[in-house]
Amino acid sequence: MDIYLVKLILAHLIGDFFLQPNSWVKDKEQKKLKSWKLYLHVGIHVVLIFLIFFDLSIWKVALSIGGLHLLIDALKILFQNRKNARILFFIDQILHFCSIVVVWHFAYKGKINISYINEINTWIIISGLVFLTMPTSIIMRVIIAKWLPPNQSQTPQSLQNAGKYIGILERALIFLFILTNHFEAVGFLLGAKSIFRFGDLTKANDIKLTEYVLIGTLLSFGIAIAAAMFTQYLIA
User: In sequence order, what are the residues at sequence separation of 6 or more whose Cβ sits closer than 8 angstroms to the Cβ of residue 105?
Assistant: First the structure.
């Protein structure tokens, strides 16, 4: 990756996540375009670019990114409300990174190599990862549904769909660990999950629930390991 692009991304990360207190964010949300902290925030981004590059000749790049940053943040605070705040946060960050790449491209004639998108191995890995998300969740639900203990389908103490998303994340991590040849991390993940689950199972005092959780965990890990090893075989 080009060093200029890395420096621009670093400046953005520091400015948006380290040098922007929550009080500034709230002030911008309340006062919208009248908030002077919006303009101070953008100014900090511009200064950071100068500091990281340590070169005044890049003023066009710094001002271009600063102007685009102001435009993106202004649109965000104008349209943001409680319902769309979460999705706008991610859209905001995507737009910021896209603006950085565009400015970098025009300023330094930079190009990002995306030829790997057309490679068969890339699509095999994507297919394996997708299989471990919802398809595996549905397969597991069909397999272990008959063993689900009564009154355990949804408890008030449990976050909605938390178990499903935890399973997807753990399978994705196992997939990543095996493809990068870090099998020991799989054992660490299993041990960590066992520790967190130990308290719940001891409090439950229900052997059926314990067996159900063990079946689900081992099945989830087993499918993830098998899918990862098969993917590894295909891309070898």
Answer: 111
Asked if residue 132 lies in contact with residue 105, where contact means CB atoms within 8 angstroms, the answer is: no
Q: What is the dihedral of CA 132, 206, 156, 222, to 10 degrees?
A: 0
d(CA 178, CA 170): 12
Nearest C-alpha neighbor of 223 from the set 186, 182, 185: 186
Judged by DSSP in three states, 228 sits in helix
Structure tokens, 29: 């949300």
Placement of tokens 């159900």 in the chain = 212
Q: What is the model's pTM?
A: 0.80
pLDDT tens sequence across 62-103: 999 999 999 999 999 999 998 999 999 999 999 999 999 999
Determine contact, residues 92/45, Cβ cutoff 8 Å.
no
CA nearest 46: which of 28, 25, 61, 57?
61
Rounded Cα distance between 113 and 67, Å, is 27
Chain-centre distance for alpha carbon 68: 24
